[in-house]
Every structure is written in C-alpha cells, then in structure tokens.
From TrEMBL:
Protein name (record): Glycoside hydrolase family 71 protein
Pfam families for the chain: Glyco_hydro_71
CDD domains per UniProt: GH71 (cd11577)
UniProt-annotated stretches for the region Disordered: 140-179
Origin species: Trichoderma asperellum (strain ATCC 204424 / CBS 433.97 / NBRC 101777)
Length: 595
C-alpha cells in the first residue's frame, strides 16, 4: 500500500446536528448571595472575609467549609447550603469557576481560576497558572470590566503575579500583552510515511528555524504507517531536544474523541511531548461537529481520571456557530485555534487578509481566561482534480499575517505549515515518501520554499521577545538584510487558470519581503531582466507585490546600499510561461531566499 497522508479538505464539511450542553435557564440569582471573590486585595464595594476572599460590602461572610471558599450571604443566617445547591457568584461582575473537587469560587473578569488537584481550597485567581496548579473550569463569565493584574497573594507562586493587559484588541492595544502561557510558535506538520532519517532532518531543521514544536496532524491513530511515522518523530524529538503535540484531523471522521485517550497516553510521558503548566497540549483540525459533551466524556474526563489533564486548543472552525460564544459552548476547550483566518476569504475579488476573526477569538479568550492560538500562513495552492483545485491569496499574505500577530499579541502562534506540499504552504523539507500515491509532486516537487525560513526565524524571535508590536521591529539576525522573493511561473492569463478555484484572486506580481537592519537601502525588483519597481527600504520588515511579472527568466530582487553596491540578491531559477505545457496548471510559488 502506498503511503497515506492527511490532506486537509477545505470548505467541504457541513456541521451536522449540534447538541448543546448549555442549559437554557439558570437558577435565579439572590442579590449578594454566592461564592466569594478570591483576592488578596478586595475591590471597591466589597469587604474582606479574611483568607484572601471578599464579599460584597452589603453581604455577610460565612466561613469556609471543607475544600470550599467563603460564602457570601445576604443576612447573618448561613446560606452556604443554598449556594452549594445553586452555585453563583455573590456579584454578577465576577466569573464563576469550579476547581478542587468541583467546588465553586469566583474571580474578577480577566483572571484565570487555578487549583491544586485534591487541594484544600476550591481555587485561586491568577494571571498565569502557576506550576503545580491546573486551570479551573469556567462556569460563567462575569459582567465586570477585565482587571489588568492580580495583587500578590500568599498562596500563589511568584510566576503567577505578573501583570497582564486584559484587553487586547486593535483599538485598545498600545503595547505587548503578557499572557497566561509561555509564548510559543508551532509549525503544523502533516504526518505521512517517512524514514527515521527524514524525521531527524525535519526535527533538527525546525528547531534551527526557532519553532517550539510540531503540531502533528493525523487522521489515523491505528495504522502501522502512521504509528511508525509518529514514533520516528518522537524518537527524533527526544534525541534532539524538540517538542511535539498531537493535532487530530477530525475532518476525515476517522477518529472519535473516545479513541484518543488510550492513543495519547502512549506519548504524553515522552520528554518531547509539549506541555503547558505540565499539561499535554492537544489540538485539532475540525471536530466542531462533535458535541462538547462528547469531547468532555470521551476525551477529557477519561484522561483527567488517569491524572492527565490535557490542555485542549482545538480548531472548531467547522462548527455552525463559529466563532461566537465559543467558550460557553465548548467548555471542554482551554483555548481556541482558528485555521481559516490565516488567509483572505476565497472568492473572486482580490482582498487583503482580515484579522477580524482573530480579534474576536482573542477577545473571547481574554474574557474567559483562556488562550488564543493564531495561525500564520503563506498561501494555498492545491491541484488534485475538480473540487480539489484551488488558490488562496498569497502575494504578501505571509508578511501581512506577521504584522497582524505583532499587532494583536495572541498567546500562541502556529505556522501553517511545515510540510503540507498538497496545499502549497510548506516552508520545510519536501519528502516524496510523505506524498506517495498522490500527484502532489507534479506541482510541489522542485518548488523549494525554504527561502521563507529567512523571514520566519526573525519573526519568531520578535514575537517571542514580547516587545515588538509592528513589522519595523522584526530585525534581521545579523548586520545584513535577509528575506525572500516569490513568484508564480505561469501568468494568470494562462488558459488553464480557470480550472483553479479563486483564480480571479491571483495577480501577476513579483513578491518580496525583506528585513533590513537600518534605512538607507533600496530594494530593486526585476522581471524578465527589466526593472519593475524600486523602493526605499525602512528598518525592519519591507514587503510588496510588484505588478509586472512577465514571461521569461530574469526574475530577481537586489538590495542596494547607500553607496550603490548590491549587498544581497535573490534570483529565481524558474522561467515564467504564458501557458502550461502539460495538464498541471501550476500556480505554486518559486521561492528564493536572499544571499
Ligand atoms: C480561613 O481558612 C481556614 C482553613 O481553610 C478555616 O479554618 C477558617 O475558618 C477560615 N476563616 C474564615 C474567616 O473563613
Ligand atoms: C505506541 O507508540 C509506539 C511508537 O513510539 C508505537 O510503535 C506503538 O504502536 C504505539 N502503540 C499504540 C497503542 O498506539
Ligand atoms: C491591501 O493593503 C495594502 C496596504 O495597506 C493597500 O495598499 C491595498 O490597497 C490593499 N488591497 C486591497 C485589495 O484592499
Ligand atoms: C509540466 O511542465 C512543467 C514545465 O515545463 C515541468 O516542469 C513539469 O515537470 C511538467 N509536469 C509533468 C507532470 O509532466
């Protein structure tokens, strides 16, 4: 049998019946009655109950019960039993969480509930979950304004006391936001048949680029070819100090949540499994057609019962309600990933990529004390037959997404992808064995994309550094320019172009993105050996899609210094043609790094 691999099928899934686990009615709240706020400093209109808890100033504090926090009661009579029966917060402004033994406690909006498994206190409120703690479950979000920091409390470690900016949308962000999880940049990785040596090469190359982990995309968790490849990758990662986590490809409908625990337990003990606060990270492509309750009962609870609390950041873009009310619908999720927002919408009009879905999800994550994993990608090109042929804008999508990440400051970032040759957005190695049995090689083989790594490495450094908020702060690693040139080898006017979905969005441009150490450089762009653009460079990121791609060779860019010397250049190795000479209408990019 030839190698099998998972190709992401885009736009073909409709979400089937969605069952909702969210009750439509809640018990009526009694004013001033409910669980107390866990905070060392009590906000205005509240009073301290001692034990770093606060009740509304008009309520009475009731001492803690076993594993519980102080209750707030409207009168001096003990209402603890009523609060246990119908848990709520004593103030509607606070968010209700459940922690140790499922006991309730309340936090100000913007903070995260955390608890020690089996601990004697229901939970605490923090900006970042301290080591040894688990993130609590958010039951309902309060109406209060998000707070920006948590005052020191004796029960949290110093790592939990960092301040954070609660609001992080474009309009309100003035600087970088520290997050509840350590910043990381992952690369999406399509699991396919491979050799041990190829696994070592991918792992060491991705580590050299600066990635923190591969998100291993698989729709198969039983067949020998998949288990063998995953095994090679974990062995390589263990050996070379890289990390991996699973991203289950649910779009194939070949994995059910209840099959995941036994599979995952085979890998979560590996040194190379990526964890957040000691919890193994798990992601998906799709799976929003499966109800929250099925994810909870089939996947999360069985693992938790075995002492493994997965940190679940799925992409449920196939859910019919996407992206609204994400965390109240999917209480199983600890974060959210948005695959589709990496590219402009498909269609017939040329547009820049929008970050409105990213902003929406980031806001929801901040409000719920959860995290947002933001996608970055170059473009898409797929040519596998009718219905499986498409283009998604890529002229300058990659640098535009870099800018959007630095503007929004998400918690985590995932590059789509390291090796998906089928969809064209690979930046890593091309291994024929991973795509055997397909015709992907007809358009990907020989189209090397590693030139994009010159841009990705400094971007990762800038994002993880935490202080860069714009492209001008993405700097080259040394004293000279880095960057790349990319163009298609077929004009959009080729007669075969209309076989490609969204071909109307393609442009005949020579594209570049260059990182300059200072101003004073000029970027010159040539097609068919003719100058089609000349641009004064600025420090950091410079990019353009320059119209004027023409038939022939001589596609190149030059970086010229103020003395008029060419200090770096990138020259395409492939000619541009007006028509395709065979059945492959190849819109893949020729990508060349500066040297
Ligand atoms: C503070 O916590 C301790 C230990 O959980 C408990 O015994 C005590 O009653 C609490 N005090 C108040 C005022 O709730
Ligand atoms: C566990 O992982 C190893 C590779 O590390 C693989 O060979 C084995 O088949 C896996 N077992 C299961 C049940 O997935
Ligand atoms: C995309 O953004 C660039 C830079 O802001 C702008 O010049 C261009 O007009 C935009 N293109 C479209 C189609 O909106
Ligand atoms: C199609 O033509 C291109 C350009 O001449 C060539 O590089 C490629 O190998 C050809 N593909 C096939 C499948 O013949």
């Amino acid at each position: 049998m030839g190698a099998l691999r998972s190709f992401v099928i885009l736009g073909t899934l409709v979400s089937p019946a969605l069952s909702t686990a969210v009750p439509l009615t809640r018990p009526r709240a009694v004013a001033g009655q409910g669980w107390s706020l866990q905070s060392g400093t009590c906000p205005a209109d509240t009073k301290s109950c001692g034990n770093e808890s606060c009740c509304p100033s008009t309520s009475n504090c009731q001492a803690t019960g076993n594993g519980e926090v102080e209750a707030c009661c409207p009168t001096t009579s003990n209402c603890r039993g009523s609060v246990e029966g119908a848990p709520s917060c004593a103030s509607a402004a606070w968010s209700l969480w459940t922690g140790s033994f499922g006991n309730g406690f309340c936090c100000e909006v913007g903070l995260t509930g955390a608890f020690v498994n089996g601990g004697s206190v229901a939970g605490i409120c923090v900006t970042s979950v301290p080591s040894g703690y688990s993130m609590a479950s958010l039951v309902s979000k309060g109406t209060g304004t998000p707070v920006t920091s948590t005052p020191p409390t004796s029960s949290t470690s110093s790592s939990a006391q960092t301040t954070t900016k609660a609001s992080s949308t474009k309009s309100t962000t003035s600087g970088p936001t520290s997050t509840t999880v350590p910043r990381a940049v992952f690369a999406h990785y399509m699991v396919g048949s491979m050799t041990a040596a190829e696994a070592v090469q991918d792992v060491t190359d991705a580590k050299a680029v600066g990635f923190d982990a591969f998100a291993l995309n698989t729709h198969d968790i039983t067949d020998p070819w998949a288990l063998e490849a995953i095994g090679y990758l974990f062995d390589a990662a263990d050996q070379y100090g890289f990390k991996l986590f699973m991203s289950f490809d649910m779009s194939w409908h070949t994995i059910s949540p209840s099959q995941i625990p036994s599979f995952l337990l085979n890998y979560t003990s590996r040194a190379s499994y990526y964890t957040i606060s000691g919890r193994p990270l798990v992601s998906t492509y799709d799976g929003g057609f499966i109800a929250n309750s099925d994810w909870l009962l089939g996947f999360k609870q069985p693992l938790t019962a075995q002492g493994i609390n997965p940190y679940f950041i799925p992409n449920f873009g196939d859910w019919s309600g996407w992206p609204s009310n994400f965390f109240s619908t999917y209480t199983v999720a600890d974060g959210v990933f948005s695959w589709e927002s990496a590219w402009p919408a498909p269609g017939t009009t040329i547009s820049n990529v929008s970050d409105s879905v990213d902003q929406n999800l980031l806001q929801q994550a901040r409000a719920a004390g959860k995290v947002f994993l933001m996608p970055v990608s170059s473009f898409q090109f797929k040519y596998l037959g009718p219905g499986q042929d498409w283009y998604r804008i890529g002229e300058v999508n990659l640098p535009q997404r870099f800018e959007q990440v630095l503007d929004l400051q998400p918690d985590l970032v995932e590059l789509i992808t390291w090796n998906d040759a089928g969809e064209g957005h690979y930046i890593g190695n091309f291994f024929q064995g991973q795509i055997d049995g397909s015709t992907i090689g007809n358009y990907a083989n020989g189209f090397d994309h590693t030139g994009w790594q010159q841009l990705v490495s400094p971007f990762i450094r800038a994002y993880k550094g935490g202080t860069a908020t714009s492209g001008s702060q993405i700097l080259p690693p040394g004293s000279g320019p880095v960057g790349s040139l990319w163009y298609r080898t077929l004009l959009t006017s080729a007669s075969c172009s209309s076989t490609i979905q969204n071909y109307q969005q393609g442009q005949d441009t020579v594209n570049f993105a260059v990182l300059l150490p200072s101003s004073g450089y000029t970027i010159k762009v040539y097609s068919n050996n003719g100058l089609i653009g000349s641009f004064a460079g600025t420090v950091g990121l410079n990019y353009r899609a320059v119209p004027g791609l023409s038939v022939g060779g001589g596609q190149y860019i030059q970086i010229v210094n103020s003395a008029g010397s060419v200090v770096a250049s990138a020259t395409g190795t492939k000619q541009v043609a007006a028509q395709s000479s065979n059945a492959t209408c190849n819109w893949n990019y020729e990508v060349v790094g500066l040297s």
